[in-house]
Amino acid sequence: MCGIIGIISKQPISSMVLEALKLLEYRGYDSAGIATLVDGDIERRRAEGKLVNLEKRVNAEPLSGTIGIGHTRWATHGAPTERNAHPHATEQVAIVHNGIIENFAELRAELEAEGIKFQSDTDTETVAQLVSRNIRTGDAPIEAVRKVFDRLRGAFALAFLFKGEDDLLIAARRGSPLAIGYGEGEMFLGSDAIALAPFTDKITYLEDGDWAVLTRDSVTFYDENNAQVSRIVQQSAGAAYVVNKGNYKHFMEKEIYEQPEVISRTLAHYLDFASSSVREDVTNIDWSQINRLAISACGTAYYAATIGKYWLERYARLPVEIDIASEFRYREMPLSKDTLALFVSQSGETADTLASLRYCRAQGLPIAAVVNVRESTIAREADIVLPTLAGPEIGVASTKAFTCQLSVLAALALSAAKAKGTITPQKEQQLVQELASLSGYINQALKLAPKVEAICRDLVNVKHALYLGRGTSFPLAMEGALKLKEISYIHAEGYAAGELKHGPIALIDETMPVIVIAPYDRLYEKTVSNMQEVAARGGRIILITDAEGAKHANVHAVATLTMPEVPEFISPLVYALPIQMLAYYTAVFMGTDIDQPRNLAKSVTVE
Ligand code: F6R
Questions:
Q1: Which of the residues 7, 76, 515, 524 has an alpha carbon 20 to 30 A from that of 37?
Q2: What is the edge-to-edge ordering of all strands in the sheet holding 93-101?
Q3: CB-based burial of residue 591 (10 Å sphere; 0-12 exposed, 13-18 middle, 19+ buried)?
Q4: Where is each Glutamine amidotransferase type-2 domain found (predicted)?
């Protein structure tokens, strides 16, 4: 999603802005731009596509100036062209924006009726034009901006730069995240701590509804009622998030290979491996008050949560409602006070997940969140934070965050089961030991990479693929299909294996690869029957199973990936690996932009 940076310094800032924009690239974008004040006038450089295009533009026509704003744009309103790239500017003001101005059409009509000519198709330009109109009619910049907030509906983070104001930036947050950074005689604003990491580790997160006035030596905060407020300065962990690819070709590859380590680290936070038990105090959830869960999440996090549902219901005997966050918030589900509202999010900024959290807050429910970014809005607004210790995930396609989410959810299910007495101490010990053995199994799964690569050479030529699984392998099938779609652009669907004959079987012919996730467990035989239905219609089966499964398959598979034999409880964590590798190597062969696939954003801060 869009990334914002703003800098007031004593030295030229255009290269600093570009450096920060590079750190925001991971969020996903399709154009970029920068504006500075040159002799008091606003000057812009903007470019379609990747940052290197903007860099070329700035190198060809350098931008001086010690104050400025920059932006990476993920198109919502208007095509990803230079004309629609931010900053949007009039003579008086330049702005960058993350979010959506929902009432932009009516605002634009109002301004156009007054004869104002728009230069772009964006919702953002209406904000620039409104502020500009106020300045032209006599308002000072701060007043001009303040008056505009009341006119805007929707979610936004905004930064403003003004003609002739060499010591003033304004930042505003409603919905979308924004942080202020402190330097020596310099001030910064940015979408996240990562963007600010090269310049400062002292930051303040704007609260929702806040706006801030920045000069080189000061920042003044105002809340949504325009009352001056103080906000705490905190030490940022942003620097830890500035990572490189090391010897790997892509961040996604690096993140796949980091999984044995980050899963162990995450599990060790919740489990005591020495005594093979769940740590008592770590989740801080009073399970005696909880009789059910309502979980919301989006995308990969939703699939992780769906696997978590199987565990929570099976081991802790807790009924779980699970929803895609964008549906949950509008479906008016009856919620009782004995429901724990649980949100799962890597970024902790996903707009729909955050909106669902706030909906549950308004209903008075206790709120827990499984999040990777500790300083995120979701982490800050939850009562109980259940961290995934995956470290920064830069590849847009989630891999290690997914398996760390699974790790936390597995530990959470055991913690609830222990507190509710639905598992015996022996069972707790057994299941904790199974989780403790995960990194070994995952390392074994990683060794299948050459075999996976060989399969992917053929997948490159297909247009569609089906993934099938039962039990916890069903959400994994959906996750596998999502991964393949995201980075290779091959159309794929994940189905419950038993659902095949209720429709999708019509798609099976000799061109259709069917990836079957079937560990040799209590559901295996049922899945084999479904495989036979596929084989009978000439489908090309790629079977992911273990040695026993391979022995009992009894159908012709064009390829079999033989996994280590793993206990059923932890199998989704281990089988996630070949699923991720299948998508990764297919995309490598296709030559797509793996870490920043087209149209996708890492942090989805609009609804
Ligand atoms: C897919 C992927 C997305 C995210 C989804 C939610 O690989 O990464 O589907 O899982 O956008 O994002 P978070 O977890 O940040 O809330």
A1: 76
A2: 88-89, 93-101, 154-162, 169-174, 211-214, 219-222, 228-229
A3: exposed
A4: 2-217
Q: Identify which of 302, 398, 400 to mutate to test ligand 1's pocket (most ligand atoms within 8 A of the CB).
A: 398
Distance in angstroms (rounded) separating the CA atoms of residues 86 and 124: 8
74-78, 316-320, 363-367, 469-473: the lowest-pLDDT one: 74-78
Contacts of 129 (CB under 8 A, 6+ apart): 90, 108, 111, 116, 118
* Cα-based distances in Å from 552 to 467, 524, 531, 546, 547: 20, 9, 12, 10, 9
pTM of the prediction? 0.84
Any bridge partners for residue 323, and if so which?
A: 296
Select the CATH number that applies to the domain covering 3-247 from these four: 1.10.10.60, 3.60.20.10, 3.40.640.10, 3.30.9.10.
3.60.20.10
Signed CA dihedral, 556, 560, 565, 571: sign only: negative
Q: Do domains 3-247 and 444-590 have the same CATH topology?
A: no
Q: Domain map of the chain by residue range? A: 3-247, 254-436, 444-590
602 a catalytic residue? yes
Cα 481–485–490 angle (5° rounding)? Answer: 105
* Centre of ligand 1 from the C-alpha of residue 515, in Å: 22
Q: Which residues contact 395 (CB under 8 A, 6 or more apart)?
A: 26, 250, 251, 252, 254, 255, 594, 595
Cα–ligand 1 centroid distance for 345 (angstroms): 7
Distance 399 CA to ligand 1 centre (A): 10
552: closest CA among 585, 520, 580?
A: 520
Architecture of domain 254-436: 3-Layer(aba) Sandwich (3.40)
Q: How far is residue 20's CA from residue 6's CA, in Å, rounded to a whole number? A: 9
Q: Helix, strand, coil shares of the chain as percentages rounded to 5?
A: 40, 25, 35
User: Which of 22, 309, 418, 602 does the annotation list as catalytic?
Assistant: 602
Q: Is the dihedral of CA 109, 174, 325, 372 positive or negative?
A: positive
How far is 516 from 518, CA to CA, in rounded Å? Answer: 6
Give the chain's end-to-end CA distance (angstroms, integer). Answer: 11
- In the residue annotation, 447 being an active-site residue is answered as no
Q: Which residue has the tokens 């990479």?
A: 449
Q: How far from chain centre, in Å, is Cα 213?
A: 29
Helices (DSSP H) in 499-570: which residue ranges? Answer: 524-536, 547-552
139-191 pLDDT, tens per residue?
999 999 999 999 999 889 999 999 999 999 999 999 788 999 999 999 999 99
Counting atoms of ligand 1 from 1, which one is nearest the CA of 299? 9
- Would the pLDDT of 250 be above 90? yes
Query: What is the CATH code for 444-590?
Result: 3.40.50.10490
| Ordered alpha helix ranges (H), 61-162 | 104-113, 124-136, 141-149
Q: Which residues are CB-contacts of 311 (< 8 A; sequence separation ≥ 6)?
A: 409, 410, 413, 472, 569
